[in-house]
Amino acid sequence: MILLTLFVAGAAIFFVAHVLLLFTSFGKFDYSRTKYLWSHLTLWICGILLFTATSMYAGKGVSPVLDVFDTRVKQLLIPGVVIVLSIAAHTIVKLLVMPKYQSR
């Protein structure tokens, strides 16, 4: 149970770090490539932690939320969502945010 708590707390911390790094990557006049890279990495780490937690504890009655992911297909939805979020964020940044910095 302690390990599950660590997985979930770690995932929450990495998700908050992802959001903070993503929003602070872009300043008034330029953007930080390093922060932007770390924002993607923290999102992937969050997904890995959640996938690991569901792989270990789903269907065992430990948590009703984790029990939703009781099959491998449902568990693979987690990395699927991470991929979609990552692609969506990258597309938004590429098409909407970066043109602002390139025009200066």
UniProtKB/TrEMBL annotation:
Name used for this protein in its record: Uncharacterized protein
Listed transmembrane segments: 6-24, 36-57, 77-97
Keywords: Membrane, Transmembrane, Transmembrane helix
Organism: Chitinophaga chungangae
